[in-house]
Design brief:
It catalyses: RX + glutathione = an S-substituted glutathione + a halide anion + H(+). By secondary structure, the protein is of the alpha+beta class. 56% of the residues lie in helices and 8% in strands.
Length: 228
């Protein structure tokens, strides 16, 4: 593990959780080294990894400038980064304010409302050994339900918190960007959820986020070509 950069980020190659962390690292101009964990080889269950995360999941972040402090769970990582290093509050609001708790509310909703349902939609659509139509339809419906929540709120305000883009908005981007690839065939984001799609695309066009996501898409394309 190299310590010439501030952070080490353990992540899967293309899984959205790790790239969500990269979005914030890039936005804040923080230096990091990626360490890729191969979940298909169960590397996340190996002792050299579970010493950092006993739950055996990625991502995990180590902050070498803070006594090699280790933190896991993607939204806990995001909150750590913005609370500690976004001192100018470019992507976050000040702790203790009402807006801060609204920011937390959306991060919790992303972590408990978006992420698990989208993840199950991917699992039953792509990886489950048996095709179970009821499960596939249930989780596709949940994806649309979550988008409906965002559509309704964003129809009345431009951003989720404080009238500007924050970590709360950014936390939703990577999952929403893969709906058509992995969850719902022929999904038309702009047609079904035009307000949420516009919000999503504004965030995805931010230079730091666009750069990171283009790298992720190149890696995803390589994986797909290797299957041909």
């Amino acid at each position: 593990m190299s310590h010439n950069k501030q952070f080490t980020l353990f992540m899967q190659k293309t899984a959205v959780h790790g790239w969500k962390v990269i979005f914030i690292l890039e936005e804040l101009g923080l230096t990091y080294e990626k360490v890729i964990i191969d979940i298909w080889k169960n590397e996340q269950k190996a002792p050299e990894f579970t010493k950092y995360n006993p739950n055996g999941r990625t991502p995990v972040l180590i902050d070498h400038r803070n006594n090699d402090f280790v933190i896991w769970e993607s939204n806990a990582i995001l909150q750590y980064l913005v609370d500690k290093y976004d001192t100018g509050r470019r992507l976050s609001v000040a702790p203790g304010t009402d807006e801060y708790f609204t920011q937390l509310q959306w991060l919790y909703f992303q972590g408990t409302g978006q992420s698990p349902y989208y993840g199950q939609a991917i699992w039953f659509n792509l990886y489950h050994a048996e095709k179970i139509p009821s499960a596939i339809e249930r989780y596709r419906a949940e994806v649309r339900r979550v988008l409906g929540v965002l559509e309704g709120v964003l129809s009345n305000q431009e951003w989720l918190v404080d009238g500007r883009v924050t970590v709360a908005d950014v936390s939703f981007v990577s999952w929403n960007a893969v709906i058509g690839d992995t969850m719902i065939e022929n999904f038309d984001f702009e047609k079904e959820f035009p307000v949420a799609a516009k919000w999503h695309n504004r965030i995805l066009e931010r230079p730091a986020i666009k750069k990171a996501w283009e790298e992720r898409n190149r890696l995803w394309a390589e994986i797909q070509r290797s299957k041909d």
